[in-house]
Amino acid sequence: MSTMVSPVTRPDAVRIHAADNVAVAIRALSAGEEVDVADARVRVRDDIPAGHKFALRALADGEPVVKYGFPIGAMTQPAAAGTWLHSHNLRTRLEGMHEYVYSPSGERPRAAGVAPTFEGYRRADGRVGTRNEVWILNTVGCVNFVADGIAKSAMARGAPHIDGVYAFGHPFGCSQLGDDLAHTQAVLAGLMRNPNAGGVLVLGLGCENNQMDALLARAGDVDRSRIRFFNSQDVMDERASGLVMVEELIARMADDRRETVSASELVIGHKCGGSDGFSGISANAVVGRVADKLTSYGGGVLLTEVPEMFGAEQLLMNRATSEPVYQQLVSMINDFKAYFTRHGQSIHENPSPGNKAGGLTTLEEKSLGAIQKGGQAPVTRVLRYGEPAAPGGLTLLEGPGNDGVSCTAMIASGATVLLFTTGRGTPLGFPVPTIKISSNSEIAAKKPHWIDFNAGALLDGTRSMDEMADDLFAYVLDIASGRQQTNNETHGYREIAIWKDGVTL
Q: What structural domains and CATH numbers belong to the chain?
């Protein structure tokens, strides 16, 4: 898919793809203004907020509206050139299930040559972490407070040779059954395996459905010398017992050192949260270039948010490297649509209110912008929730669009850095370094303690797409090497969220 060519000066509006019949306002436009866009001069008929769309030519009732080179919906009434297009005159064309056809795309990023390096922590299973931390994970929400106290006490005692001790609480593990319990176990087991955790304390209560033995078995072949665990009901003083075990883990990590490794061993996750009309043009497009760079070196990129593939899924399917991968993606997409239907929800009940305020009207529009984060990288595998990932190409991971759940899912699958794009802004952070990338300069200026990288410079005309992609890739390697910290690390924004889908007793 083509993406916008960077301007050299800040334009008033931009057409993203040559086939588009709409343009996006880069700044707020007033009715009666004339703007130059797509080699034409258009008189704006309405006040149009920044990030919103307007017609480049007259559009008929029912005519497809095209953005990113693909339909994002259909008109519900006629509109003249310069008319503001949004929920009042544009509707989705998505309906239920679709029949898909595998039409492999021949377009692939070129091989990039010798991979750059970063400084990472090599683990016993061969994977490489970007941090060396102790993680405290709970089998059940009943012990969240205890886990947090253990982490704070351990941090207060100090351990300069590691990157910190952190507890990640959640409300689940008790009274869960079936797939609901399996989701909780899958994520916790995946977090136990993440290479950023040089040591893990698993803290239980004792009487919960999420029993310790079952959870440890779910984690599989982990380095047991770096795992400690106990049930709080089995000890006299759970905080003291936990602190002793954390100190044992810290001692086990005493000889851990960073070493120079190829970027081909890096696994990162890409996420967009609080998107606006600029996200698919600037932040997601720049992140997509990073996906192309890293995968061309042999590294791995994870993409999830399955509902935000609806309307753009065929494009991803055509990038599958084999028929089996294509079939797995079809199954994942259809299973997620069935999940919506099973709960009585419309498949196209998206975008969110914040997305709409930012200029996104339909799910097709949001999805086409969202998948820009995957660039043109080949889709090499499809994973179900909680399954482990590996370097090599673009991996599509089962998970919802929710920021907390989807980011946690990518970390549970093995991502050691997250690239999180946003047009609206959020302080949310996760167990691994979370690089916040703004789609516009305004949110970057307003929230410098949230935003790590401003892709809005692309719209401002101060940086080109190539420059932005090179800058961001270099920044990712600096973060991965520990030479810099992200805002979520500096300010302590670290949490997890687990996908809840089932009966609670």
A: 13-91 (2.30.130.110), 133-255 (3.40.50), 268-424+468-478 (no CATH)
